[in-house]
Design goal:
The chain has about 325 residues and is an alpha/beta fold. It has helices spanning about 1-15, 80-90, 120-130, 135-140, 155-165, 170-180, 195-200, 205-215, 220-225, 235-250, 265-275, 300-315, and strands spanning about 45-50, 55-65, 70-75, 80, 95-100, 135, 150, 255-260, 280-290.
């Protein structure tokens, strides 16, 4: 099970990289109430339903100021169910303005879903979505509607700030890995169950994702692994850019806004929005990973037996 925890750490880091929806230079939303777990964070949680499975959910916190202006902080999980992103696309139509993250060259417009996003981070996220049989945010979310407003650093500024800080994706990922290894999450009975037991349960695909999802509920831990004592470009400086765009957008008279950013950004973004005079009044949840066990799907042992039978039936 130690290997599964390390895989979970890799997924954790990939989920926390801010979309780096990143382009290099050269119905109402699906919601579900908490059922069996106290909220560790208002932006990412795993809801455990025991033998029935569960779900990994992203949060949306609504904040209001004295003038009745509302800002919804909508946390993104960058690898999730196709239905998760489709529902968010519909939800975004409800807002006057949706401020979004995407590091891309100055003056560049977002591509259609499924086009572009060929950075190393995007490649990692696409690899993980294939491994986990999920979808990738940039392949489904449509960033082209008129109410979408870019609220991130451009590629040139992002790379300049990283050079000034001596920061890189590799160094931040290593930093996060070392912190997580030095302070691993506490082990529970559910996390240390025997691998053989795991292989005998139905729906192996979701059983494995359940093990991973149980490790992903503490977004403050993700952010701590990516940010240093003086902040970072990937989190702190990009959050500053988002708030700067927010302030200018508010001055234009918009009264119902959303900020759509990676879940790891949200605790700091909420603090910055509250400093502008907004107070949180509501939280709703979007199901990003459906982990309800399908009894008709094969277990690991059944898959092994099926492969063995096929091999025996093949002509020699």
């Amino acid at each position: 099970m130690r290997k599964l925890w390390l895989i979970a750490l890799g997924v954790n880091i990939a989920l926390g990289w801010a979309c780096l929806p990143m382009v290099r230079a050269d119905q109402a939303p699906t919601t579900a109430p908490a059922q069996t777990q106290a909220d560790a964070s208002p932006y990412l949680r795993f809801v455990d339903e025991g033998a029935a499975g569960g779900s990994l959910q992203s949060g949306e916190v609504t904040l209001v100021n004295a003038d009745g202006v509302t800002i919804d902080l909508i946390a993104a999980i960058h690898i999730g169910e196709t239905s998760y992103y489709q529902e968010l696309n519909r939800h975004f139509q409800d807002f006057d303005a949706v401020l979004y993250e995407m590091v891309m060259p100055k003056g560049m417009k977002p591509h259609a879903p499924g086009v572009g996003g060929d950075s190393s981070v995007a490649q990692l996220q696409r690899f993980l979505k294939d491994v986990l049989a999920l979808d990738y945010q940039l392949d489904v979310i449509d960033y082209r509607p008129a109410n979408f407003i870019h609220a991130d650093l451009d590629t040139q500024t992002f790379e300049k700030l990283q050079r000034q800080r001596g920061e890189s994706f590799a160094s931040l990922m290593l930093q996060g890995l070392m912190r997580a290894l030095a302070d691993p999450p506490p082990q529970s009975d559910a996390q240390t169950e025997d691998l053989l037991d795991l292989l005998t349960r139905p729906d192996l695909d979701r059983q494995i994702k359940l093990v991973l999802a149980r490790q992903l509920g503490d977004i403050e831990r993700i952010a701590g692994g990516l940010d240093g004592p003086d902040g970072s470009v990937i989190l702190t400086e990009r959050n500053k850019a988002a708030i700067s765009v927010l302030e200018s957008t508010l001055k234009q008279g918009h009264r119902h806004l959303a900020i759509f950013y990676g879940a790891a950004h949200m605790p700091d973004l909420q603090r910055r929005v509250e400093a502008l005079g907004f107070k949180p009044v509501n939280t709703q949840w979007h199901m990003a990973w459906d982990l309800h066990i399908r009894a008709d799907q094969p277990s690991g042992v059944q898959r092994l037996l099926d492969h063995a039978m096929q091999a025996l039936e093949e002509p020699q």
